[in-house]
Write a structure and sequence with these properties.
The protein has about 550 residues and is of the alpha/beta class. It has helices spanning about 5-15, 20-25, 30-45, 55-65, 85-100, 120-135, 180-195, 210-215, 235-245, 260-265, 285-295, 325-335, 350-360, 390-400, 415-425, 445-450, 520-525, 540-550, and strands spanning about 45-50, 70-75, 110, 145-150, 170-175, 200-205, 225, 250, 275-285, 305-310, 340-345, 365-370, 465-470, 490, 505-510, 515, 530-540, 555-560. The strands form two sheets. The chain has a 16-stranded parallel beta sheet that branches. This is RNI-like protein.
Amino acid sequence: MNGSSPAVVTIIEHILPFLSQKDLASCRLVNRTWSVLATVQSARALESALVRLPLRILHYRRKGLLSTIRSMDIDISYIDGFLSAPMYERRIRDAIEMVSTMLPMVKSLKVRMQPTHSLRSQNETRFTRMAFNMLMGAFPGLAALDLSECSVSVLDTEQGSPFARLSQLQTIKWFTLGRNDMSSAAALCDLANANKHSLQVFYGMADGTDRAMRALCQAPKIKRVDISGSNVSDEALLELVRARGHSLHELTLSDCARLTRHSIGNLTPTMLPSLVSLDLYNVMVTTDTYQHLFNMHTYWPYLQDLKLKAAIPHISPRQDSLVNDDILEAIGSRCPMLVSLRLFGCHGITDEGLSSVLGNLGYLRELVVMHSATDPLVQNNGEDEESDTDSDATFHSARSSRRSSARFEYSATEESDDLLAGASDSGHAGPSTGGLLMSVPSINDIWATIPSLPTHGVQQPPANLVARRVDSSPQSTAPNSPCLTRSRNQRVFTSQALSRGVRSRRFNLLNLDMEYDSVCAEHLSRLSHLHVLCGRVITRHAKALIETQFPKCKMMVWNIN
């Protein structure tokens, strides 16, 4: 088939939107056809500061690429000393006028600012809010609005809602910078109400309220909801699940302090038959709730991303089995399509429970199982009563710097064919090409997912768990490791967890509370791909075996024996 035939060009045009800018630059080197198509695809996203936007638009017009722009990433940060106040205001008005007249075809807009949580000077407040309000009114036909990198301080509800002309939004990503208040929550609720007939993705974050949930109940196309850190009640969540649970694909409820077992216990496959991603990190539930969600009588056919960590109240007694072996065995057998599984604070998991997951989940690309959690659930057993004050201060400082957990970006990868082929062999329908497949995480994301270790000793583990002492001054393989202190006794997984084998052949991330020895290394060497390996202890021989099999693998293990 000719490389420039219409059929080939159509196929290439469908592939290029899934590639990054770096990959598009490589595609330009293939031949002339690839170069033209990759250049057009790169030009679809315009990124610029607002005051320099007219020059960028004129550059695109000279190149003949103005009609290809479909999304814009605009920085509205105030540049102090750049121009006088009247000239700066004139530059903003000219930029907005040029955008509204020359780029009416833009459907996606991302507004961002420098990472400051508040507007400081009077000019900064005035011009930033003016730019934001005018920018919102310049695109009445927007389909996607991303404010996740913009400070909520730009929102001035006293001048009226800046979102009054937006009525066709499909995606809303709300503010995550700054301190949200009742005015921003009300603005989000009004925006959801105005776009309820077209809304598909709702990332309300901390501004998600019961009113907003009731507005989403009237959104027939809603698929993704993120209300992490909000004060949504059990009644509002149940109302949303009962009304729109059949169409929800992603539900993020992390750090929702008001949610209890009364609502979480009703998130069953019957209520959410199409759910692909579920995040219950730091939600106030117990073992009974998890056993109700995941048992041998429930089946989650499409669940690909699962994150669990229960928030136990300080008044409650210690609970070591928030997620135990029985729950993990049910997850391994009743969630066959899992791609990502992240478990924190799992003191009740042993080698047997971990082996059931590794031996049953064939599509798994990321596995994080940590006995410890960000909020320490362990008690002092009296061995470490005289702890070092400086070490405690260093530990708490490191823990607070990683308070927010990393989030995943989903993209289509080359593993789609492997997943589909594996699914057909196992008798299950594989994930669709439009499903959620994780991209390889960065090193900073990996450290963000590793919770802090307690500075005090833990209770003596049961006989079926292995407790080992580690050198008090470990030699870390990762410089500037956030794990600065260790307790004297730590539970770790052993090679018995790999005794049943590893069904998945490819791992982007494998982060376990494990002591990797030569037996573990032999099991892992049978994988076809291993990008990042994290753990507690690794022997030098095991390290050499893994480095030989996977020379590009990044190992972040806290101790080397």
